[in-house]
Amino acid sequence: MKIGVPREIKSDEYRIALTPAGARELLQRGHDVLVETGAGEGSAFADGAYEAVGARVAGDAEEVWAESELILKVKEPIEAEYGLLRDDQILFTYLHLAANEPLTRALTESGAACVAYETVETDARALPLLAPMSEIAGRLAAQAGAYFLEKPLGGSGVLLGGVPGVAAGNVVVLGGGMVGYNAALIALGVGANVIILERSIDRMRHLEETLSGRFTLLMSSSLQIEESIEDADVVIGAVLIPGALAPKLLTRESIRRMKDGSVLCDVAIDQGGCAETSRPTTHSEPTYVVDGVIHYCVANMPGAVPVTSTKALTNATLPYVEAIADKGLAEAVASDPALARGVNVLHGKVTYEAVADAHGLDYAPLEDVLPLSPV
Ligand SMILES: NC(=O)c1ccc[n+]([C@@H]2O[C@H](COP(=O)([O-])OP(=O)(O)OC[C@H]3O[C@@H](n4cnc5c(N)ncnc54)[C@H](O)[C@@H]3O)[C@@H](O)[C@H]2O)c1
Asked: For the chain, what percent of residues have pLDDT higher than 70?
């Protein structure tokens, strides 16, 4: 299959959808790989690194889109890219269509097969292509919390790990899933006192085993949250109710009762945020202050560490890319229900129910649109 990797043109996006190592795997399986000039630069992969493994480097985006049967991207196409998609193409990328009606309409009009990383979902309800970004965002959240506590940045001036003779700072993590676990891991690593508030007892049992009792684990309730955050130096919002907006666990009143110069890292901001006072921020202006509390609410945190994020993303996507390239989309989704759940738009139809519902469009089950039924 002819596989194309365009440069990401969304602002502040430095990732690329395929590493040279991933390109080599695909080339060894007999596929063609075409990478746009400069596409890997933001992730520290020069054009020469792709050429060295046998990939071709194309002059511009038009050439990549025109020549490729399978387009690999990181972020959803932006308006300038809408016209480049063809009805005989497969697009594999993060799409987040429920939040983007113009893109949903553009993709249906293109007639292309559009597979979203974020809705590839195993039978056990795991999201294998979202998980690596959650790992990164969780680890970054603990780092950001420690950093913005520094006095010159407006923070309270507490060193999270303390020193011998001086108490460590307190980190409260709301939600002990992928983001929360990774945030706790780094916070524990720098020596902070860590409390995780979860509402799933099974998940708490798992955390107890993996983090071997080095932290406090509490059932999440509005009272417990209020009591815990009053002593917190850093609060990390890491809750998720799949498919829904994040619950507003932190009221404006409870934010007011937090310590001056403490930091709220609301990682769940991409689902609306878990504090009433949260609104999305960017890497160029990551924070703002409400009632003395520094709010860090960057919606695309992994974009700050593209070198790591690009590798983590390719590690997770490559098996699915290989399956699509080796078998073609129809057979690949027929043999893998997790991948089938990733298909959002196909031949002009919306094949993902939540996306159709979000925009009042007709929903067409995948098996009605694809010749081979998924099993
Ligand atoms: N800002 C970013 O750049 C970025 C990057 C990656 C992920 N995220 C977001 O981070 C959030 C968490 O993602 P995840 O992968 O960790 O999800 P996850 O499903 O692995 O974990 C979420 C956890 O929240 C728990 N939870 C739900 N309601 C709760 C409540 N009321 N109190 C306490 N715990 C509760 C769940 O039991 C679950 O364990 C999501 O909104 C995700 O989209 C943001």
From this structure: 98
